[in-house]
Design goal:
Organism: Janibacter limosus
Low-confidence stretches: 1-5
Order of helices and strands: EHEHEHEHEHEHHHHHH
GO molecular function, one term: DNA binding
Radius of gyration: 18 Å
Strand content: 5-15%
CATH architecture of the largest domain: 3-Layer(aba) Sandwich
Mean pLDDT: 84
InterPro entries: CheY-like_superfamily (IPR011006), NreC/VraR/RcsB-like_REC (IPR058245), Sig_transdc_resp-reg_C-effctor (IPR016032), Sig_transdc_resp-reg_receiver (IPR001789), Tscrpt_reg_LuxR_C (IPR000792), WalR-like (IPR039420)
CATH class of the largest domain: Alpha Beta
GO biological process, one term: regulation of DNA-templated transcription
Helix content: 55-70%
Distance between the termini: 39 Å
Structural class: alpha/beta
Largest sheet: 6 strands, parallel
Number of domains: 2
CATH topology of the largest domain: Rossmann fold
Number of helices: 11
Number of strands: 6
Pfam family, one: Response_reg
């Protein structure tokens, strides 16, 4: 798959509402660095189209016939597809957000997200970052923090065993991710360059076999580890 920094970012739209697909196509088509390469009207067709075009980013609706967006995302991630998925929906239900991120989605945006924010989200996700609508960030972090309260002793030990794979510095970064900090905020807190933080996050994701930062945060909170001072 081509680097989004040198070639246009390829996007597939998966939504059962043709008017939504048209609007999204017009918004993204206005950005010179983004190209909508295909569209699909349900999750099953979406998987076929994604397999054909191998896009950089997929905008995936949740509620669709034949195969919903969460199930399609799960199948896509399990298939090993390198395409990044942004769930796009009218609703910001906590359960939908957490299920989407736990199944490997790279972002969750509401359909009323302003056009410039939507374009920026596609850019960021294509570059390897996770993105959430501001309105759902707080609820996601609160849900992640409940992992500490609901974790059993075996879950806690399993999480600590997984985190033991990290170096001391990577553990510091993982704890900061668990607090919901961005790469820039972690950079300031730990006196590291943003590029170094990004490299650490990449290694953390690999070592924990995690698909996104939320999964890292869940592991940190299950292990009952506090963020660095």
């Amino acid at each position: 798959m081509s680097s989004p920094s040198s070639d246009p970012i390829s996007v597939v739209l998966v939504d059962d509402d043709p008017m939504v697909r048209t609007a999204l196509s017009m918004i993204l088509g206005g950005a010179p660095e983004i190209t909508v390469v295909a569209q699909a009207q349900d999750g099953r067709q979406g998987l076929s189209v994604i397999a054909e075009h191998s896009p950089d980013v997929v905008l995936m609706d949740i509620r669709m016939p034949r195969l919903d967006g969460l199930s399609a995302t799960d199948e896509l991630v399990r298939s090993g597809s390198p395409s990044k998925v942004i769930i796009l929906t009218t609703f910001d239900a906590d359960d939908d957000v957490m299920r989407a991120l736990q199944h490997g989605a790279d972002g969750f945006l509401l359909k009323d997200t302003p056009p410039d924010r939507l374009v920026e989200a596609v850019r960021l996700v294509a570059a390897g970052q996770s993105i959430l609508s501001p309105s759902v960030t707080t609820s996601v972090l609160n849900s992640v923090r409940t992992a500490r309260e609901t974790a059993t002793s075996s879950t806690r030990e399993e999480a600590r065993t997984r985190l033991a794979r990290l170096t001391d510095r990577e553990l510091d970064v993982a704890r900061a991710v668990g607090s919901g900090l961005s790469n820039a905020e972690i950079s300031g807190r730990l006196f590291l360059s943003v590029a170094t933080v990004k490299a650490h996050v990449g290694r953390i994701l690999d070592k924990l076999d995690a698909d996104n930062r939320v999964q890292v945060a869940i592991t940190v909170h299950e292990a009952e580890l506090d963020a660095p001072a």
